[in-house]
Amino acid sequence: MSIQDLIERTKVSFCQDCGVCTGSCPVSRVLPGFSPQQMVGKFVLSADLGLEDEALSDRDMWSCLTCALCLQRCPSKVEYLEFVRAVREEAFRTGNKATFAHDGVIETIVNMQRGGLHQNKTAWAREAGQIAESGEYYLFVGCLPYFDVLFRDMGISSLGSASHMLKMLNKLGIEPVVSDEERCCGHDLLWSGNVDVFKELAAFNIEMIKRCGSKKVIFGCPEGYVAFKAYYPLYFGELDFEVVHFYDLVGEQIKDGALKLSRVEEQTVTYHDPCRLGRMAGIYEAPRELIAGMPGMTLVEMERNRENAVCCGVSCWANCSSYSKQIQMDRLKEAEATGADALITACPKCKIHFTCALSSSDMKMEVKDLTEVMAASALEH
User: Fold this and answer.
1) Is pTM, for the whole model, over 0.85?
2) Strand partners, 158
3) Is the Cβ–Cβ distance between 64 and 91 less than 8 Å?
């Protein structure tokens, strides 16, 4: 697809040069020279001058966090996120790729999940609770088993969240399918331009879930949820199953009285809205209602919350650098300023990134996963 086609499809030519996107962008505040507005202008100009190859070699496109804050505020409704995603796809094909954090280990693991890979992703589930080989509900675990190994030295147990999800589902009488055959949702590949492999993994997951006979697929990870909800249908049409977020499902069960939350240790907490769960999926209130519903838990809001929340500083494990740490520390200081004892988030990656930032600081703020916090209350009965 030509740059001109991308410009027309994503409406970037509607840009009024008002600068709202740049003024809103967390990266523009800490990385001199980066500007969503200028990047759009650069590609529009390159299309006019026939310099598309030069534009596609630009590295600025990889600095964008795709956090959707600019999209939220753009008065012209420019589809900036889709523009960046499409430009990255074209750039990837020319050899201009993101610089991946952790020496590209996570990218390698995702690419390994193609084809006939044999995995053991269910051992934890058989220890944690009851699972099925087929049935109405499917619990999509994603890359949590791999994160659990990679970040264990940081004191993070990514599978703790999955284990507690399973236990709470069991408490509700649900024995979901958890499969060794499951592949990565492909979110990071999609946003780093590797769309061909994304589609390969997505097709595999769709067929695998179909074989399991599942009609409702439950997600705890915001990225997996958005990938299935918004982008699988974009490439494969309407899905044969419903995409459900765990917090929505559990929240309804609590309202109906099927699941009760008991008193927890008195604590004041603040909540960080993940970009994918908040701005991209529109789920703001469900996590807050769950926190507020736990007796003993007091929720205080950061100055920037809900639609105005700031990104955790890293997207698709790419381009994690000094500006990422500045964004993270700025957000953690904002959390500290509320007087909260802990920062709760609803995304496994946000927890990893914030914990990493804290490891090199003297701040006492604790970062917690909402599902694990909830489990201490929901599983007491």
Assistant:
1) yes
2) none
3) no
Q: Which of 121, 221, 131 is nearest to 174 (CA)?
A: 131
For residue 60, CA distances in Å to 15, 40, 96, 319 come to 18, 11, 11, 11
Instruction: Write out the two tokens for 66.
Output: 């795709």
Q: What are the chain's domains?
A: 3-94 (1.10.1060.10), 102-252 (no CATH), 259-378 (3.40.50)
For 175: left if phi > 0, alpha if psi spans -120 to 50, otherwise beta; the answer is beta
Q: Which residue has the tokens 């890293």?
A: 314
60-63 long-range CB contacts below 8 Å, 24 or more apart? 60/34, 61/87, 61/88, 61/91, 62/88, 62/98, 62/99, 62/318, 62/319, 63/27, 63/31, 63/34, 63/319, 63/323
Q: How far is CA 230 from the centre of its chain?
A: 13
Residues 143-168: pLDDT tens digits?
998 888 888 888 888 898 999 999 99
> What is the spatial distance between Cα 55 and Cα 39, in angstroms, rounded to a whole number?
9
